[in-house]
Amino acid sequence: AVISNSKQQFQPGMQASISFPYQGNEGVISLPNDAVMREESGDIVWVKTKKGHYEFRMVTLGAENENSVVITKGLNNGDQVVISGTYLLSSEYTLKKGGDFMAGMNM
Asked: Residue 106 — very low, low, confident or very high, per pLDDT cuts 50/70/90?
């Protein structure tokens, strides 16, 4: 990228934080960052399977910015993903099933 500096406002040694908005491409799955649970054993999202039922899926992440992340593996177009309340859903799952919902996953 080229940035105009005709007024000399940018000087050598200065630091900046730059964000480039992601322009979605057809076929690319992008989610809000809050939808992804980043665990030691891997990144997961919760997907609705039928009314009132959810399952977690391991996903592979691609490009991300401060608001969203691209999912490169683990989801299909049309999957209904939980975008808020993921930790609450995980806690409820653990209470009902007992133990850690991620136990035994060797990722």
From this structure: very low
- Whole-model pTM over 0.85: no
pLDDT of residue 80: 93
Query: Please, where are the H alpha helices in 37-103?
Result: 86-97
Other beta carbons less than 10 A from residue 25's beta carbon? 8
Burial (CB count within 10 angstroms: exposed 0-12, middle 13-18, buried 19+), residue 43: middle
Domain 29-97 falls in which CATH fold? Answer: 2.40.420
Let me know: does 46 contact 55? Beta carbons within 8 Å: yes
Query: CB of 87 within 8 A of CB of 94?
Result: no
Report domain extents, the chain: 29-97
Strand runs (DSSP E) across the chain, as ranges? 29-32, 37-39, 42-50, 53-64, 68-73, 80-81
Q: What is the mean pLDDT of residues 78-87?
A: 87
68 near 76, Cβ under 8 Å?
Answer: no
